[in-house]
Structure formats: structure tokens, C-alpha cells
Amino acid sequence: QGQPVQSWSAWVADVEYDRASGELSVTRVTAGHDQRAGTTAAAAHATDDLLDQKQRALLGEQARLAMAQTLAPDQGFDAWSREVRPLPGQSSAGLPQVDLIGGGTTPALRDIQLKAGGAFTLPAAAAISNAIHAATGVRLREAPFSGEQIRLALQHQEGSGQRPGGWRRLRKYGWLGGAAAALGATLTLAMPWRAEIAPVARPAADLYSAATIERGRRVALAGDCAVCHTAPGGVANAGGHALQTPFGTVYSTNITPDEKTGIGNWSYTAFERAMREGIHRDGRHLYPAFPYTAFAKISEADMQSLYAYLMAQPAVSSTPPENDLRFPFNMRPLLAGWNLLFHKNEVFQPDPDRSALWNRGAYLVEGAGHCTACHSPRNALGAEQGGRQYLGGGTVDGWEAPALTALSKSPTPWTEDELFSYLRSGFSDRHGIAAGPMAPVVAELAQLPAGDVRAIAHYLASFQAPATSTTTPAPITTTSLNESQKLSQANGKRLFQGACAACHIEGTGPTLFGVRPSLRVNTNLHSDTPDNLIHVILHGIREPANPVLGYMPGFANSFSDAQVGDLLAYLRSEFAAGKPAWEGVPESIARSRAQAGH
User: Fold this and answer.
1) What is the average pLDDT across 489-494?
2) Which of 527, 519, 521, 524 is nearest to 501 (CA)?
3) What is the enclosing helix (H) or strand (E) of 395?
4) N or C: which end of the chain has fewer CB within 10 A?
5) Is Hydrolase one of the keywords (predicted)?
6) For the range 184-188, what are the long-range contacts, defined as Cβ-Cβ under 8 Å and sequence gap of 24 or more?
7) What is the Cα–Cα distance from 590 to 598, expressed in whole angstroms?
8) Is the separation of the CB atoms in 219 and 302 below 8 Å?
């Protein structure tokens, strides 16, 4: 005690910088530390049982935290949340490898000497700065460091040879160039045939950095690529999933890097054109069931990363079925006119009057997430409606995608926390469980950093009805029932008590198969249509967004159409009091059975 301590600490860092995406990451750190004190004799007698693997893990975590603090978080709308620890079930491949080297003569003594606090992490910034200089030739002298700083420095180096005054002349005629570019883009959209982009060899596996591929994986998760591009029981992203539209059936394409049946021979230029303009590599127009109208908003860095990720996946040879669209909707050249009317090839622009969190959420919802593709109504030509109808509810594969704004039929207004819980876990105790096409979407979102899901929830919450200090319950209207209706509801009540009450009855009782969702706040029971509820009753929830939620069996083979109708009548009157009885129930039941082949 009171003895002076001499400490030495040295770090060597390996960094990766991807010029295409602007991603900067630390991939490996070698950290060495030693110290000398006047009272090292006590330490020298330390026993080997002090060699604690947990202690080493904590030191490695300390090194990773130092790295994270040395890298500047990008504040742009396309910045992905940084997480030092991976989500449960994920590998730590995206985290830097840390090798610890200590001094001393025994393993126990080395671990004791590595306990140095601030002295251990002091060289972190210098190590990263040196590594950046070695990799790029750019010397950054003040932490935290970012890929944006490197990009600007490289641009300055490359542009230093330009003649003075060139920028001023460019600005003078900039408006003319902008007008010409806008006119050219409009005419390009109106072209019924586009030129083929020549095929290329599949990019080498090591062309893109691990950080860029990881970023692309997150873009793919936010965009639910595998949800639409994977057939039931098929290989991920190999295509063949049937997308039902009012104009016929469109089958998703193979987006694995197979060179014959997938996108393995697509250059980045061809990939970006498809994502932003809806044009195949061979020049064909893509149907807007593929939401390029939303993907056009993705930033260049995210687009590059998504391409890198897809090209790094296993190639699968798979040819999806041919589309089955009615005439004239099967005439691809007509889509040029559709694009001219309804598509804007523009990258997302943040709102300067909104917070960074709101803009981040808007970017994810409007861009990669393409939430409007399902949750906004469409006009007669299949284009999404905006304005007051933005996120006002739509249909997908026979399911109602409810409104995500104040137009929601939910009896309880959505809050940011409820939205976050639902999108993160697939369940909200004030709204219900994610089912149908939404369940796999939630399963994808659950793998994103929590900060990004929070941004989505924050953005969507801004469209909810403003909270009031006092709420007046809506009056419950009662209508007289004829004998047939009374009998139907009585039969429905018996069915509920025998098949549903064990899991859905309110009050005390065991939780048998997962969560116990309340039916009184379930959005489906308050909807204007019974479709979602019919789907769940007949087909159950076989693959919940989260296994903890539990499995719900389907009753398609147990209940007749009449019994399903009776159960619906009871559920509507009991748990959505005041709502009128649903109409067209027999037709909805028949559609649901036909959709599943029952």
C-alpha cells in the first residue's frame, strides 16, 4: 500500500474500412500489460486457482468497450445501432477478437497484473489511429474515429488536383444540370424496354469486409428479404413464395448468388437498378409486388452492404414457378407507365425539424422495412395510397394488415412502449399476438439491435391519436336478437368454453401453452372484417414469432363452417361489445379454407 506502481501497456489493432459502404470496424486487438510494484512478493506467491477464465472474459469485454468508445457513432439516418454484446443466440463474429498478453512469471501473476484499470485501455485510441493510417493512408488525430471522417479525407486527397474555380463554375450552372437530370430520370422511367446489364463473375468471398456483410445482414433483416423470398419449407432466399395480388399470383425470385437461377452474375450496378428502379438485369420491368418503390429510399451505404451480404450467402440452384397474372397485367412494358405515375426514385431525406430517432424510424419504415406495402391501402392500379391513408391499413395474402395510425380499430391506443414490445417479441398484453404474415416479420426484427426497433416504434407512435387526460368510454349499443341469433351465440359460448377458455379466459388460472392474451383488447375482434380471426381459429398459430408465446392449434378439421360462425358471433358480442355483427362471414370462412387447402 502506498507503493508507486510502474505500468506498461501496448495495443496493436487491426481495422477494416470498406470504401463502398463507408463502414469502419475493429476486427482484432492484441493488448499487452505489465506493472511493477515494490510489493510484488505477495503477488508472486499467488496460487494458480486465481487464474479465472471469467476474469479474462471481463478484461476482453473491457477492451471491446474501449474500442467501441473510440469509434464514433454515425448520427446519420442510416446509422445502425452499435451493440458491444450480440443478441441471445447470435454469434460474436461481429465483435473484435481480443488477445491478452500479460507480464510476470506465472499464469496467476499475469492475470493479477492485467487488472490495471485505466492504464490498461490508454493506448486504444493510438492503436486504432495507427491502424487506420496503415490501411488507408489517412491520419486521424482525435478520437472518436468514424468511417465518414475517412471518406471525407480520401475525397479531399483525390480532389486536391482539381483546378481552382471549377466548383464555382459548377454551381453557376448547377440548376441547369439538375433540371436535365430530372428530365432524364423521368424519360428513363417511361421507357418500356431497358438495356441489359452484362453479367459478371460472382464477387470473391473476401471482397467485402466482415463489418459490411454484417451491416448488410441487418438491412436484410429490416427488409424481411427471407420472408418473401423463401417458399414454405424451402431454402432461405431461393424464391418461390406465392404473393397473392388482385391481378393474379406473383412468385418471388431466387436472390441467392447462384449464377444461373439467382443473382450470382449480377453486378452491383444491376442490383442497384433493380432495387431502385424495378428493372431486372436483363432489362425486364419487375412487378411492384417487389417493393422497389420503398427500396429506392435505401442509402448508398446500406445498398452496398445488402449486395455484399447477399453475395456472401450460399448459392442455391432453384427456379421459381412462372407468374400467373391476368391480361393485361402480365404485360411488363406497361409497368413503365405505372412507374411514371407512381414511382419516385429518390433516397430518403431526413426531416430537419424532427429528432434523429424519429428520422431513423422513418428511414427504416419507409425504406428497407417497406411497411406501407402491407399497411397502406392501394388504388385500382395497385399503387399505395398516401396522405391520410398512409399506413391506414391494407391486405396481404388474405390477411388484414391493420392501420398503424390513429385510424387503427384497436380499442386501446398504441404507445411507443407497446409498439416496441410487439415488434421485439411478437406480443403486447394490450393488443395481442403477432400472427399470420406478421409473425415472421417480428422474428426478423427481433434480431436487430434494440435501438433500431425502438426507432421504428418511436416513428409509428407519432401517428397515433394524441393522448387525453380523460377518456370517455364509447356508449355500448344494444340490439335485439332474434331466436336464430340467440341460438347462434349460445352455441358459440359453449364452443368457447370447451375449446378456447382454457387459454383465453380472463382472471386466474394456469397459463398452459404460453402467454394468456386478453380477447377484449385484441385488435382483430374490433376490426370491421372477421378475416384475421377466422384465419387464426381455422389454422391456428403454428409458428409464433417467439417460441415463448406458445403454439395455438387450428380447428379447421374440428369445427364446421356453422360452428365457426357461431363462435365468431359469440366472440364479437362478448369481447367487442357495441360493435355490429360481422357481415359476409360464410364467404370469409370459405375463402380462408380454400386458401389453406381445407
Assistant:
1) 91
2) 519
3) strand 394-396
4) N
5) no
6) 185/345, 186/340, 188/277
7) 9
8) yes
What's the rounded Cα separation, in Å, for the pair 568 and 575? 10
The stretch 197-223 carries a mean pLDDT of 92
Distance CA 127, CA 13 (A): 6
Cis peptide bond N-terminal to 73, omega within 30: no
Decide if 379 contacts 385 (C-beta within 8 A). yes
Q: 332-350 pLDDT, tens per residue?
A: 999 999 999 999 999 999 9
Average pLDDT over residues 189-202: 82
Q: Is the pTM of this model over 0.90?
A: no
Per-position DSSP letters for 53-65, written without gaps between them: HHHHHHHHHHHHH
Confidence class of residue 91 from pLDDT cuts 50, 70 and 90?
Answer: very low
Torsions phi, psi for 291 (to 5 deg): -80, 60
Q: Which residues contact 194 (CB under 8 A, 6 or more apart)?
A: 188, 279, 283, 284, 285
Where in 432-554 does DSSP place strands (E)?
A: 432-433
Give every CB contact of residue 349 below 8 A, 6+ residues apart in sequence: none
The 8-class DSSP code of residue 279 comes to B
Cα(303)–Cα(296) distance, rounded to whole angstroms?
9
Taken in order 386, 391, 393, 399, the sign of the CA dihedral is: positive
